[in-house]
Amino acid sequence: MRGYQYDCRHSSYQQHRRDRKQHGGGHPASSTFAIGIRRTSTRDNIGRCSSYCLLLLLLLLGAPSHSFHPISSSSSSSSSSNAAASRGPSTTRRVSSALLSETNAGDNKHGTPTPTMAANDTNNSNGNNKTNNLSVGFIGCGTIASSIARGLILAASNKSTNLDSIVVSKRSESKSKALVEEYSQNNNDDNNDKLLLSVTEDNQEILDRCDLIFLTVLPQQASSVLQGLEFDPNRHILVSLVSTANLQDLMKDSKLDMARVSKMICLPSIASHKGVALLCCGDNSNSNGTTKRLLVDLFGAMGGVVALDTEADLEACMVTTCTMGPLYGTMKKQRDWLLNKTDSLSKDDATFLVIKQFAGAIFDAERATSTETTFALDTRLEDLIEEQTPGGLNEQALKNYGQVLGGFEDLQQPVMDAILSRIRGETDGSIDRSK
User: Fold this and answer.
1) Where is the stretch described as Disordered (predicted)?
2) pLDDT tens digits, residue range 93-138?
3) Which of 187, 225, 247, 258 is the most exposed place for a label (fewest CB within 10 A)?
4) CATH 3.40.50.720 domain locations along the chain
5) Is 291 helix (H, G, I), strand (E, B) or coil?
């Protein structure tokens, strides 16, 4: 019973003390002290016991109804977790129910909810895809890592996901310092809704404190960094953002099962939930695998995610993320052209003009990704091209690009093919124009 307890032994003890005082400190014949020796007749005992039972019944009937709600398992778990946490990090190791071993789910042949399944069912019952409480760690803290961290913090603040803490590597110090200045909370803060962000120089400490681990180091560092760490095969999930590391290498270096390693690619815009994450999980043989469900739910709350079945498909999709540079280059060229052709346009205004025009065009295309749209997503780009006014300036610009460059396909395909060949280690990514 929560909020109300009644202890007969305590009441008996008080009566026992009063009786002892009245009888000069001896044990009165009528004493019913719960842990004392009974020296009374059976009839007296039955009568006194009946009186106490009646008193207990009256108290129970008169107590507030809310006092008798059973203690939920979550409340018990929370109390246990708080008690464990008070003993310090050296004596406790939290494991998120979202990251329980997939072996448990695999043994569940009759569909009885395991802790993982039950948690997901509960979260999804109201149309939500919240992950269970997670502690997330970043080994390496560059632009992408800090962007993901910001995106996670934003998701936690708007309640679209549940996070306990984020621990980031000190390197690079400028990025980690900026995160701390923006988001870290005092360890003594009593507001449990606030996410705790901390920085450490010890990568093993990140593993000891976190469930979900993001690897964001330089390609040449990835293997040695992983080999120097001790992963928990029943706890950790490893997500690599190192473009050159494949799933087999990640599994070998971390000594984790294939189902617990994944590769992911994203852009810095994920910090504001404007980007999209590309994902390839080691448990792709199971389309509803624990790791995939966790990551799809997590990054689905941060702008969107596209999950690929093979690393080859992931590599091909990575090429589109490499065309952001050419896009920015095009925008800069247009800005510079405007400055050369105008007298009164400032550089700030020219930059503002170009960025907003591109943003407007992207917005028109993005409308097809909304769940409430009437636009067909699969033909949206073709439809936008067809919407250009016949004989108008946009149509003329399209024709001119085709005449000068040989068409967009002739421009895009060799550039993207060359980037893909570099990603796969086949070439250095350059184009030989002599051929």
Assistant:
1) 1-32, 70-129
2) 222 333 333 333 333 322 322 222 222 333 443 344 555 688 999 9
3) 187
4) 97-321
5) helix
